[in-house]
Amino acid sequence: MKQFMDRDFLLDSPTARELFHSHAANLPIIDYHCHLDPAMIADDHRFSSITELWLGGDHYKWRAMRSNGVPEKYITGKDSTEWEKFSHWAATMPYCFRNPLYHWTHLELLTAFGIDRRLNPSTAREIFDECNSQLRENPDMTARGLMRKYKVEVVCTTDDPVDTLDHHKRIRESGFEIKVLPTWRPDKAMAIEGGAVFCDYVRKLAGASGRTIGSFHDYLDALRERHDFFAAMGCRLSDHGLSEFYADDYTDAELAAIFDKATGGETLTDDEIRKFKSGMLIHFGEMDAEAGWTQQFHYGTIRNANSRMMAQLGPDSGFDSIAEYATAQSCALFLDRLNSAGKLAKTILYNLNPSANEVMATMIGNFQDGSVAGKMQLGSGWWFNDQLDGMTRQINALSQLGLLSRFVGMLTDSRSFLSYPRHEYFRRCLCNIVGSDIENGLIPYDGLEKQRVEQMIEDISYHNAKSFFGF
Predict the structure, then answer these.
(1) Contact, 41 vs 145, CB < 8 A?
(2) Contact 11/3 with Cβ under 8 angstroms?
(3) How many Cα atoms occupy the beta-carbon half-sphere of 370 within 13 Å?
(4) What is the mean pLDDT of each run of 10 residues along the chain (471 residues)?
(5) Which of the ends of the chain has fewer CB neighbours closer than 10 A, N or C?
(6) β-pairing verdict for 301-302 and 321-322
(7) CA 93 to CA 97: how far, in whole Å?
(8) 62: helix, coil or strand?
(9) Helix (H, G, I), strand (E, B) or coil at 267
(10) Which residues of 412-425 are buried (b: 16+ CB within 10 A; e: fewer)?
(11) 381, 396 in Cβ contact below 8 A?
(12) How far apart are CA 459 and CA 408, in angstroms?
């Protein structure tokens, strides 16, 4: 029986262990998609406790605690203490076997705090006190210090077009050695179904751009101005959170009429909403191509399914799930429109439903054009899939239907400064898969091929992302 989470955790063969320890473990981290708060980085935030650091915005943990019967008071409530929340998380931990939270929790305790003990009700108080002591007394246990500890080289946050990016300016002016770059996330600019909320967004965009917006043409000009501003601030990627891809037929005249109707307070039809979203995706794709950015698409989720809790807590609080949209045809039409116009930027497709792994692995092959190695990417296992089985399935689909060697690798997609061990988790998984193939005679591991395998591991872990995004 193997020891739990020892040095060779997840590494089932001598070759897997060699690949990981010699070629993946010590490489820097490029976290090209996350939801860290740039204000915390600018301020070099010091956390009040492990509860703030661990449970402050982690809806993965919140979902597990709810499933374990923990009252909301001890999860997101304002009337419970940090110890009460932590103790309920510790009490949930022994019920998390086979959930990735069990592995992530203990990797984070070990790598961040040097604590090699399992979290449960009997150890909760001592671990709580020890973590808090380090957070309070160790000058390196801050937002920036944790990034340094995990050898982070680049972080790309997620930012709305109306954001001032003032915190990014402060980070840059401070001389912080780790690159912290914005990412263009224009979801709200597409949400024309929002009625008054959309109209309010148009007003915010007008203020941010310094332009009067009285027409759809003005609206696009304001967005282009903000796109240019983001580029000047170092932005190299866009990101879109979609339920599904939109590729309805439209004309710019129709988009203008729909915009006028929405900003005039009129109710839109479903067809009008889809036309507008379809047109905006194309306009955004063209902007990205002209700027030389990479566009990312995270799709396939049902968001805020629990309306009662949405009203109580707002979005991103743990009430989302995998959707079943038949979206492959519209994805193909969308990409083909940009490609036919010579405006298809480098693209990463992340599917939330794992049943679409093979669909998207074949989709990216349709639009590779030889201009950039791996121009079209199947994104890493996302959200509900960034665990051992999900990552393995994504790697297998990409390996069998594309070129794993050109994969840009893992990201945290997290709001937590303790999520960087997910890169280690991914690298161990990758090395175990490749190592197993070598042990079974499926991949050669001598001569030039040995060098190629080792370079592939290093590339997927670090070099591919650095080259692909132009960091």
Answers:
(1) no
(2) no
(3) 0
(4) 96 98 98 98 98 94 98 96 98 98 98 98 98 98 98 98 98 98 98 97 98 98 98 98 97 98 97 98 98 98 94 92 93 98 98 97 98 98 96 98 98 96 98 98 98 98 97 90
(5) N
(6) antiparallel
(7) 8
(8) helix
(9) coil
(10) bbbbbbbbbbbbbb
(11) no
(12) 8
Euclidean distance between the first and the last CA atom of the chain, given in angstroms as a whole number: 44
376 forms bridges with which residues in the sheet? 347
Residue 179 — φ and ψ, nearest 5°? -70, 125
> β-strands 346-351, 294-299: how paired?
parallel
370: Cβ–Cβ under 8 A, 6 or more apart, which residues?
Answer: none
Strands (E), 32-189: 152-156, 179-181
Alpha-carbon separation of residue 448 from 17, 61, 127 (angstroms) = 20, 45, 48
CA angle (435, 8, 17) in 5-degree steps: 30
Dihedral angle at the C-alpha atoms of 136, 140, 146, 150, nearest 10 degrees? Answer: -140
Name, in order, each residue with C-beta under 8 angstroms of 252's C-beta and a sequence gap of 6 or more.
216, 279
Q: Is the pTM of this model over 0.70?
A: yes
Which distant-in-sequence residues (6+ apart) come within 8 Å of 183 by Cβ? Answer: 33, 156, 157, 158, 159, 235, 237, 238, 239, 296
Nearest to 185 by CA among 156, 210, 155: 156
Sequence-separated (6 or more) residues with CB below 8 Å from residue 350 = 296, 297, 298, 299, 379, 380, 382
User: Residues 22, 26, 29, CA angle at the centre, nearest 5°?
Assistant: 135
CA 318 vs. chain centroid, Å, equals 16
- The answer to whether the Cα torsion of 106, 111, 115, 116 is positive or negative is positive
What are the structure tokens assigned to 166, written together?
A: 């003032």
